Amino acid sequence: MLKKIRIEQLQAGMYVHTLCGPWLAHDFWRTAFLVDTPEVLAKLRASPVQELWIDTRKGLNTQDALPDSVLTAFTADTAPSSLSQEMVRASAICDEAGDTVMRMFSEARMGHALDLSTASTLVQAVYSSVERHPDALISMARLKTSDNYTYLHSVAVCGLMVALARKMNLNAEQTMQAGMAGLLHDMGKAHSDPRILNKPGALTDEEFKHMQRHPVKGFLMLQATVQDEEVLDACLHHHERMDSKGYPHGLAASDIRLLTRMTAICDVYDAITSDRPYKKGWAPGVALQRMAQWCNTHLDAQIFEVFVKAIGLYPVGSLVRLQSGLLGVVCAPAQNSMSTPQVAAFYHIGLQRMLRPAKLLDLEKLPNERIVAGEDPSKWPFTNLEQLWQKAAATATA
């Protein structure tokens, strides 16, 4: 949304859509850009510009991040809710959390210390959402674009870490610790070159080495405010591998801590299921199949088994083939079994026709119907799977 503000309201992290007044009155040759450095902010405030339009879809809004926000409003409530109910709240949390992480990155670029209270409030909001329903926020956080990937990736990994910690039966303090590691693990990218970070093609060797520096940059930046050694270690070593071929230090598996192993799995899963400037994200089911092949080389096999249980053998959004010859998309997890989720069946393979409307099937209640295989959406000409599972999830009972 576009909003007109006074120049004194301008903050780092806002996206300038248009500068008001004659273009000859200032020396900004671009009128649409992100205010991402203290120099740009100071130059704008010192210019003759009195008013401007900001785009709140691409940058921060004028309101404060946390007071009277949905993050604060939803932290205390942990009573169980249905998937459809929690998806509404999770969507609002993701929207505001994305803005909050964007602000954290902007502050980091300007050399400011992390506001740990803001980070803690965000983690608490994510924790409470996962307590209310473990699948809603994880599903909504997948709906990111290549433009907001860096910020919502941190939110998504935070949610995945909380869900994984719960499934591993860690206590509340350890679960919050896991969420904080997920939220902060990529803060070092605040100091990565955005042209490399958002490059649509393959990286050169030098560009790849540049990106490999982000864990160390994040660790050095966070040391000033984060006292938790486990969280700091996860930020520094989440790209280490079980076969000692990771970075930045090539650690042996025995030297990679539990929280760091968890972060590696959650980070990889969200990264490969997300659309990036250089590739289309894999479907959840396809991602789990690929990750299973990386166990014991890249990832901890035992923790990965628990991770699959946490998000489901067929996570929400997975395309599946049913025994009856129907294709469907998973829209809600099963209550008692990973193999019997709720599925929105929308296509008859034999008849080669769409089902209108889609049929909502609860496989736990249909003994003669089952999933026979996960399908790769890239092999089918369907472009609306995200909308389909969201619509079906709005009426799901899980």
Automatic annotation (TrEMBL):
Gene3D superfamilies: Hypothetical protein af1432. Residues 126-323 form the HD-GYP domain. It comes from the Bacteria. This is HD-GYP domain-containing protein. Pfam families: DUF3391, HD_5.
